[in-house]
C-alpha cells in the first residue's frame, strides 16, 4: 500500500512525540494567501498555499467575511493593490 505525503507527515509528527493526530496536523497550521484588492475595493485573484485543503476552505470563508476595502488612490484614480496575508489556525 502506498502512503501519500500527508499520511507520512502525520506519522512522522506522531512518532516525534505528539500526543494525537490533530496536534500533529495543526502544528503546521498556517496558510499563506495572496490576493488583489480591486479598484472597486473587492478581493479578487485569491491564491493560497498550505498543506491542508481544510485550511483553504476556512481561509476562503474568512476572506469572504472581510468588509469591502477602500481602494488605493494614485494620480487621482483608484488602483489595484496586491496583498499578502498569513493566517494561523489553532485548536480549541
In short:
It contains 3 helices and 5 strands. By secondary structure, the chain is α+β, with helices and mostly antiparallel strands.
Outline the structure in words:
With 92 residues, the chain is α+β, with helices and mostly antiparallel strands. It has one domain. The protein is 34% helix and 32% strand. It is built from three helices and five strands. It has a three-stranded antiparallel β-sheet with strand order 2-1-5, with helices on one face. A two-stranded antiparallel sheet has the order 3-4. A hairpin with a 2-residue loop joins strand 3 and strand 4 (77-79).
Write the layout of secondary structure elements.
Layout: H1 5-15, H2 21-27, E1 30-37, E2 43-49, H3 53-65, E3 72-74, E4 77-79, E5 81-88
Antiparallel strand pairs: 1-2, 1-5, 3-4
Amino acid at each position: 500500500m502506498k502512503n501519500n505525503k500527508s499520511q507520512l507527515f502525520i506519522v512522522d509528527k506522531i512518532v516525534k512525540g505528539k500526543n494525537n493526530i490533530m496536534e500533529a496536523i495543526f502544528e503546521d497550521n498556517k496558510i499563506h494567501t495572496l490576493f488583489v484588492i480591486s479598484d472597486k475595493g473587492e478581493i479578487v485573484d485569491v491564491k493560497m498555499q498550505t498543506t491542508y485543503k481544510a485550511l483553504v476552505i476556512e481561509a476562503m470563508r474568512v476572506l469572504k467575511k472581510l468588509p469591502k476595502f477602500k481602494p488605493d488612490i494614485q494620480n487621482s484614480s483608484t488602483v489595484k493593490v496586491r496583498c499578502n496575508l498569513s493566517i494561523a489556525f489553532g485548536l480549541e
